Amino acid sequence: MSIRFQCPNGHDLNVKDKYAGLTGLCPQCQVRVLVPMPAAKLSDDAIVDLLGPPPPPDDDGLPVHQAQRHREAVATDPGSSSGKSLRGLSPLNRGMKMCPKCRREVRAVYDICPHCRTYFNDAAEVNRRMAQTCRACGTEYEPHLIVIWCKKCGADMRT
Questions:
Q1: Contact 35, 26 (CB under 8 A)
Q2: Which of 99, 105, 129, 138 is deepest in the core (most CB within 10 A)?
Q3: Are 132 and 157 within 8 A, CB to CB?
Q4: What ranges do the domains of the chain cover?
Q5: pTM
Q6: Cα 100 to Cα 91: distance, rounded to the nearest angstrom
Q7: What's the rounded Cα separation, in Å, for the pair 13 and 31?
């Protein structure tokens, strides 16, 4: 086995275990270095002592996410951990989409991925391109809707 450490000037050193606790010279900068002692291996009993005793089991013995008190908390606050709060994080709801080739998030208005130059040509993209887009604020409307004034900023959509 070997000991890995750095000299005071930042050079990476790899020294055999038998030199632990001794001093030597860094082969790159000739600075005197003390070879550190290797970390002692912890036994299973020592790890258990560090972690401490396990927590007492719940009254019903179920995991936390299935415990009755957790189910009651979710029922009183439906957006807390029921998954509905994650809906706003979806790339589609943030005006973003995922590139099918490089799997990176790009703005939903892009026709070509700026990272890998892939042209987006799936059905959702074709529908998006057919949609009316406000030139002032970028709000998109479904292609079947006839929009004269932008509902978000009030701009004239006829131009």
A1: no
A2: 99
A3: yes
A4: 2-34, 90-121, 132-159
A5: 0.28
A6: 13
A7: 12
